[in-house]
Specification:
Elements lengths: L4 E2 H9 L1 H8 L8 H22 L7 E3 L5 H5 L4 E8 L3 E15 L2 E11 L6 H18 L5 E6 L4 E6 L5 H15 L6
Parallel strand pairs: 1-4, 2-3, 5-6
Antiparallel strand pairs: 3-4, 4-5, 6-7
Helix pairs in contact: 1-2, 1-5, 2-6, 5-6
Length: 188
């Protein structure tokens, strides 16, 4: 399997290794009514969160849907919405990359991941997802983000998490996903 690891694969593998394997294999399946309901809930929360985040910035400080190449990051735009980070192994779409102070290979700033989710309360899996997204982002910008932001639920509550993308648990989770990518047979 030479398929790139996407955000959908990472999310699926956090819930179930077998589901992560199926996503890497390109399997789609038929979503259940519950899955459809959750997707709709997440999309409503996402739209509300985007409106909440964008209103805090000027129009020229927000860039929508860029492929995050080094040239884009060097521009130092405050918010990158629906930003896609791609390299040899990954093709991950971030809800938002937010510029913060602190040096990186692009200057005296770097980016942190911001995740939108429809869940009514933060969970360990959402924090783990933020840490894995931070790990991918760190590869691109040459600096691991120290924290990430989760905007969740119908009310658009905001929670800031300290990220430990270099922690052993996060590294093991990423290695397990990469093993799924290389495996021919599904996990047992």
């Amino acid at each position: 399997m030479a398929t790139k690891i996407t955000r959908e694969v990472i999310e699926s593998a956090l819930h179930c290794r077998y589901k992560g394997h199926l996503k890497l294999a390109g399997e789609q399946g038929n979503p259940s009514d519950y899955d459809q309901l959750m997707r709709e809930s997440c999309e409503r929360a996402r739209q509300a969160a985007i409106a909440k985040v964008v209103v805090q910035h000027k129009e020229n400080e927000v860039l929508w849907g860029p492929a995050v190449a080094p040239a884009v990051l060097r521009r130092g735009v405050s918010l990158l919405l629906d930003a896609v980070v791609e390299d040899e192994e990954f093709c991950v779409c971030f809800d938002v990359l937010q510029r913060v102070a602190g040096s990186s290979r692009f200057g005296d700033f770097h980016y942190i991941p911001v995740l939108f989710h429809g869940a009514e309360k933060p969970t360990r899996k959402l924090k783990a997802l933020l840490e894995l997204l931070g790990l991918v982002l760190g590869r691109v910008q040459g600096r691991q983000p120290g924290w990430g932001v989760l905007i969740y639920g119908r009310s658009g509550a905001v929670k800031r998490f300290r990220l430990k993308p270099n922690a052993q648990q996060t590294r093991r989770a990423m290695e397990a996903i990469k093993e799924l990518q290389e495996a021919e047979a599904p996990p047992i």
